[in-house]
Design brief:
The protein is an alpha+beta fold. It has 3 helices and 13 strands, in the order E-E-E-H-E-E-E-E-E-H-E-E-E-E-E-H. It has one domain: Sandwich (Immunoglobulin-like).
């Protein structure tokens, strides 16, 4: 798999474009953790960050360039994200529509008026760190990075119950596995007006119910197809008896 491929996806019922999936990188426990990044001028298969996006991800992971001056009227002052811990599956057009697992997130920007969000206009960077098992003394590990450019992000702005516009995002997770227990999520917004904000780290305990349901459905379908095959296939001593009860786990 090309670790630097871009995966187009549509929002919620569609796909999100411009997302970049990265390999695992060990990080310390600071929020956000500090990476060791190689700034490559040319394509390097060993560089965890692709040329062109490397400076942006470096700034994100090291908290560089965040806005420190008070926001003026109409400017963004705070980034708020509502994360959903449930894994959902959405079609991936890059792979023939095969459903892929991912997360849904809602994102808002608030200014001096805390009641109504300001209209966002910028790019988004999101990181996901896997937490080690409790009591092991290990460090969080960066397992996924997403980048949504400004023009793509505009497509995902929607009015909602907050009374203003926000982003609704589907984040395909290329490093997902059923043993993934707990992750930390952090988002950064780089506004077209120069305002750069980061969300508070949030810990999610992953809900794998959709994955388990899909696995159960596939297993049930496989067993049903196997029974039909057994019934319809003649044997040397005549047709096989029809089982009175399927042996489900």
């Amino acid at each position: 798999m090309d670790l630097r491929r871009f995966c187009p996806f549509i929002l919620c019922i569609g796909f999100l474009t411009g997302c970049v999936h990265q390999p695992k990188i060990k990080k310390p426990s600071e929020a956000p953790p500090q990476p060791v990044v190689q700034a490559a001028a040319v394509a390097d298969p060993n560089d965890p960050l692709p040329p062109g996006l490397t400076p942006k991800f470096t700034a994100f992971l090291t908290s560089q360039g965040l806005s420190s001056t008070p926001a003026k009227e109409g400017e963004a002052a705070r980034l708020t994200v509502a994360w959903n811990n449930k894994i959902i599956f959405a079609p991936d057009p890059v792979h023939g529509g095969e459903p892929v697992p991912g997360f849904i997130a809602k994102m808002w920007l608030f200014g001096t008026d805390e009641a109504i969000p300001v209209t966002p206009d910028g790019e988004i960077l999101i990181g996901m760190w896997e937490n080690p098992p409790k009591g092991t003394g290990g460090q969080p590990t960066l397992i996924e990075l997403w980048h949504i450019d400004r023009e793509t992000a505009k497509k995902f702005r929607k009015h909602d119950f907050m009374g203003g516009q926000g982003y609704t995002l589907f984040l395909p997770c290329s490093k997902y596995h059923v043993d993934l227990k707990q992750v930390n999520m952090i988002a950064r917004y780089n506004g077209a007006d120069g305002r750069c904000l980061v969300s508070s780290p949030e810990t999610l305990t992953i809900d794998h119910s959709a994955t388990l349901q899909r696995a159960a459905e596939k297993l049930g379908m496989s067993r049903t197809e196997g029974l039909k095959s057994d019934v319809s296939t003649p044997s040397p001593v005549g047709p096989l008896p029809i089982p009175m009860k399927a042996d489900h786990p």
